[in-house]
Amino acid sequence: MFTGIVTDIGRIEAAEQRGDLRLRIACSYDMGSVELGASIACSGVCLTVVDKGDDWFAVDVSAESVARTAPGMWAQGARLNLERALRIGDELGGHIVTGHVDGIGEVEGVLEVGGSTKLTIVAGEEVAPYIAAKGSIALDGVSLTVNEVENLSDGVRFAINIIPHTAQQSNFSAVAPGRKLNIEIDILARYLGRMMELRR
What we know:
Helix content: 10-25%
Strand content: over 45%
Structural class: mainly beta
Order of helices and strands: EEEEEHEEEEEEHEH
Distance between the termini: 30 Å
């Protein structure tokens, strides 16, 4: 489990296909406190640490994970939002995030509003029923609040605000139209949706 509060920005130093995709990710974590087998969310994807050094860790990304996540995000040199797993007693500053991607959105518009950045995002029908105004959503692993929602014939358009602190602490500092984002819907919405499906 995670909270959607980014604690580091990692950079993919190496990507090697060896059955699964092996990534070596540079970070500023104290890797002495990270055990092999620990979970780290990488831009919203829960991955297992399989090797580590003083300032890096390695993960294996399955073909399923590659297929379900934003295209190009696993390329060498890419920057990733990182979050270590929630521990009992930690502050829950965002919302409960599982590290499972439900869909991919595309940034349609970027607008500076005051000191913040308003992003308009378009996503498909697989996530559309689960996005609600003033609800929570994780985009590339960042916990955010949905401000506006518009239904589309083939999906949904929604808007969120990125405050300057969030932009500086994540890879949203240079977000531009056309960028693809990993979407994780709120876990409560996921279970409510399943309950409604079974009632039909």
